[in-house]
Write the structure tokens for this entry.
Amino acid sequence: MPKMNMIQAINLALHEEMEKDETVLVMGQDVGVNGGVFRATEGLSVKFGKERAIDTPLAESGIIGSAIGMAIAGLKPVAEIQFSGFSYLTLGQLEGNAARMRTRSRGQFTCPLVMRMPYGGGVRALEHHSESKETYWAHTAGLKVVIPSSPRNARALLTAAIRDPDPVIFMEPKHSYRAFKEEVPEKKETMEIGKAEIVREGSDLTLVSWGAMFHLTKKVVDQIQSERKVSIELIDLLTISPMDSATINASVRKTGRCVIVQEAQKTLGPASEIIARINDEVLMYLEAPVKRVSGYDVVMPYFGREKMYLPTMERIRRAIEETLEF
Amino acid sequence: MPLKTIGKFSLSYLQVLDDKGKLDENLEPKLSNTELNKLYRAMYLARQLDSRMLKLQRQGRLGTIPVCTGQEACVCGATFALRDSDWFVGSYRELGGRLMRGEPLINPMIYYNGYEEGSFNPVNDRTLPINIILGSQLPHAVGAAYGSRLKGEKENASLVFFGDGSTSEGDFHEAINFAAVWKLPVVFFCQNNQWAISTPRANQTHSESIAQKAISYGIDGIQIDGNDVLAVYKATKDALDRGRAGEGPTLIEAVTYRMGVHTTADDPTRYRKNAEVEEWSKKDPIKRFENYLIEKKAWSARKQKTMEDEIKAEIEQTVKDFENMTDFKPDSPFDYLFETETDDIKALRAEFLNEIGKDADNA
Ligand SMILES: Cc1ncc(C[n+]2csc(CCOP(=O)(O)OP(=O)(O)O)c2C)c(N)n1
Ligand SMILES: [Mg+2]
């Protein structure tokens, strides 16, 4: 298979799953004829028809509410919310119903739906087009939250999300949509939801990140490792909830040092939970306080100031160095 | 028992100047030549600024912008019916209306260059900033009208703009229902420009018109020619007058057309035919109004030339000023988080300043 970017990989997963399973459909604003504003659903309406690539009226709560009904009735809707900044209109339906339908009905009704949406900053977009609020969803029991970082894992994880028997919030780092290409295997591939990936093994420090920040973090690691002899274990979290603390904690137990890089605001971002779990299980192995590099607790600025409010390579590097030297 | 009729409804369509520029004198609003010239200038300015900003955007000097060309009669005509003390509540496709509310020409350039400073209207404090969450501005207009009424400003009304697509959001329905139940002076002004990005009006709602939705909420509704500025002005003025007289809200559906791209990130050739755009270009609202003014002897080629030169100079000066702007305080997002800075935020601001101070990436 040729190399592809993340948008193409997402598109591939959607094609594959719609081909394989007739109950899978996509729905959302501009996903049919237009192929989605980022073209993630390109070609689906031509191939599978308007009934399975549904251009909906403009209403997020309506999209997710009806997806819940479809899921209950045995379909597997993959709903696109055009930008995560508009997804909060679905919180009522997801928290109030999708997340608890299995519990409420004692397993009689379930919601195997996926809500996909681009999120995150760095693309010079308008207000509401740059936030990272994965915590909103992760803070709701009954929802799984997945964030791919590359074309290959986006394809594999989206496939897993569609096949998952429960509601999955699939947050796509739009900064990475077309940032780079990667070999995506010809053969269908899935990855387990709820598993972090150790991308590079190391013994001196554990570095955890996800989404678009993962690449920035990796660049810094490459830089540092080309300059000095230090061994950094790099972990791509991939699923925010359920969180794979087993992988992180095993790594921290080995390295004794940990830095977390998140795009989300500082307070109550996923890093807070990672640190709490380190504290629960491997505190005694720490040789330095765990550091986090994050956004700030302000309303995400318009793009003119955006760069200053996102983690930078410099900030990540300083955090790593301070932690190593502690 | 036979079924009995429990309600019969009808709906009107208003046009004062038809596509050919023919005037219905009985409907012609009573505006002086000075007023008419002012309104015409506002529309012309909006068009020119819109085109200039599109150019700036294509040169990479602005981020993504929505294009307002073709909808000047809607925003300018409706805003013209408003008093300064009324509430102006919009989304993002009301450039001309915002300028009429006193917004400096440089504001949209600052805004679309990614700075909140461009959201601040220094002249009118009853003009809400651009709101991108579709439909969410409608209930605000309702609450503002309620606030004015409770504070004894009985004459104050709200005018709220939104698109055809936005009528599918729950907020649209909730807002109209609230305004109706509370009998508030709110004018709900729908700019039906036929498209919500790639979704045509027909796929947005099964109703034949958007105006008829008024009926289900028990309020006045009317469909108007949104490219006929006289119809827009008249319908809005009448609705505001009724609202001020305690007769409640009105839903206006202005039928118009989005002549340009949705935003500069959009490619309409994927979903609409150029023939449709060409058809609508014959109904240009500015041209139609200009012909009316000339016919009425309220305008001349000489006046046109003077205005064009003035506006061109004004816009070019603004572009210069815009390009010379450099001073944006890095930590201003902290300034506007709360009225009183919390200790937590104070510490975070210090951390932020410290970090960017060290950061070569930001130098
Ligand atoms: C709640 C919400 N959902 C989705 C969007 C993304 N979006 C921006 S504009 C637009 C279409 C709006 O159509 P319409 O209301 O007709 O206004 P127009 O752009 O035509 O003026 C969409 C879907 C948004 N801004 N807000
Ligand atoms: Mg529209």
Q: What stands out?
A: The interface with chain B takes residues 29-30, 33-35, 37, 55, 57-62, 85-86, 89, 124-128, 266-267, 296-299, 301-309, 312-315, 318 of chain A (CB under 8 Å).
